[in-house]
Amino acid sequence: MPSRRCIAWALVAMALAGLLAAPVAAVTWRQAVRQRPGWFQSDEGRRVVANVIAYQLPCGGWDKNIDMAARLDDAARAALAERTDEGTIDNGATVEQLRFLARAIAAAGDADKAPAAAASFQRGLDYLLEAQYDNGGWPMYYPLRPRGYYSHIHFNDDGMANVLNLLADIAEGRPGFDFVDAAGRQRAAAALARGIECILKCQVVVDGQRTAWCAQHDEHTLAPAKARTYELPSLSGQESVAVVRVLMRIQEPTPEIIAAVNDAVAWLERVKITGQRIEWVRNEDGVDRIVVDDPQASPLWARFYEIGTNRPMFVGRDGVVRDRLADIERERRVHYAYLGAWPAELLAEDYPAWRQRIDPPRPSDEPAIGAQ
To answer: 208-357 architecture in CATH?
Structure first.
């Protein structure tokens, strides 16, 4: 008769066998984009890659805010094939799918071993290059929508910065993008150069001094532009951070790029808000976000600053500029980030490291004391 220990180990083995035989739970899109290379060769990985390809629009781009890892039945796939929507770079869309496909191709070994993913990637890259304006900017949606703010140059939520970082990775032949041929890298480099020129031209100048960028700029005049009712022409304490980082990754920055970065960083230093912190509370109306005085708090920055005065702007759905977060409706306070620490790491770490890279300490021309 087997001992209790043998029986126990047998039960453990049976349980493990059951776990190993059970189907792997479906991942979400947020989880899928963080998977390791080996996952792409699993049935689940192949399924999600096929989903991403199915979600690609006829224009070559993708739509936003979709869980592209969710299971699709035949009816859903048929419906996707009938869409004629515009693609977008808003909320990370299109760039995120292209990076995902690039990882799938790299995991396969090369483009020849993942032909469907490679073809989809090429269509997506062609889409981004076609969507670029002659002035170097990108709209939120392409093909262009006939009305509204969607055709403005889209810095909002780091849309254009995301595109330029992807193009830089391709142009530089970064790991994971070596499947892109020389012609593709050259096209990416040319588009990147035009994008950098657009950034430099869009930087807002006040009284002869370069400052920062608006979340969106007019596609014709390059002036700061309005989007939704609570997104007025202004200087952005959030979007400007990603724009500066794009400029800082240029390996051999021109004097114009160096000046743009230095002046933007100086502006971010000038407009930081000290002595206040954000706190989440619950009251009779539900969850709320409030500003609390705190002399020890780390600096904050406003999402919007008034051009010319650097006054923080808090704007609700009525479009009226107010001076305090508490003065706009709770719905906006809770669901939109008007204050944040977005530039903190840039100012404390990234910018000093960049300065060190472009202007390293030089040995003194004077001989050291005591030197012969």
So the answer is: Alpha/alpha barrel (1.50)
Known active-site residue 51: no
The secondary structure of 125-189 as a DSSP string is HHHHHHHS-TTS--BSEESPPSSSGGGSEE-GGGHHHHHHHHHHHHHTT-TT-TTS-HHHHHHHH
Residues 6 or more apart in contact with residue 287 via CB below 8 angstroms: 280, 281, 334
Which numeric CATH code is attached to 26-202? 1.50.10.20
Tokens of 32: 């899928």
Q: Of 46, 91, 145, 332, which is the active-site residue?
A: 91
Our answer to whether residue 228 is catalytic in this structure is: yes
342: nearest Cα among 282, 287, 264: 264
Q: What is the pLDDT of residues 56-94, one digit of tens each?
A: 999 999 999 999 999 999 999 999 999 999 999 999 999
Q: Which of 47, 145, 228, 311 is catalytic?
A: 228
pTM of the model: 0.90
